[in-house]
Design brief:
The chain is 79% helix and 0% strand. It is mainly α. The chain is globular.
Length: 108
């Protein structure tokens, strides 16, 4: 899991990063206990940092992966939700993402 987190958030190669994030999302979907491991190895911190750093330079694949991982992280973990909203103040970044996505969808 730690290798996937590193490759999913610390690698500059877009293809490798997305594949690692797909593996992370699949693991969290198929084995819910891996969600805790993801948080324990620092994945939540990297997820938040990546989301905040890329609000203006993502495409649909990135948005899908962020959304899927975010959903799986928060599906059954009240503490993760509280942390994301209170400590990381991620709500403003999510609003930016969805406004940008809505704007783009309206143009096409």
């Amino acid at each position: 899991m730690k290798v996937l987190v590193t490759n999913g958030y610390d690698v500059s190669d877009v293809v490798a990063r997305r594949e690692a994030q797909r593996c992370l999302a699949n693991a969290m979907y198929l084995k819910p206990e891996t969600r805790k491991i993801f948080v324990d190895v620092g994945g939540c911190n990297k997820f938040v940092s990546a989301l905040k750093a890329s609000t203006s330079k993502r495409d649909g694949d990135d948005d899908f992966l962020f959304g899927r991982i975010g959903f799986l992280l928060t599906a059954q973990k009240e503490l993760v939700v509280q942390r994301l909203l209170n400590d990381d103040r991620i709500m403003l970044d999510l609003v930016k993402v969805f406004r940008c996505s809505s704007f783009l969808m309206a143009r096409f």
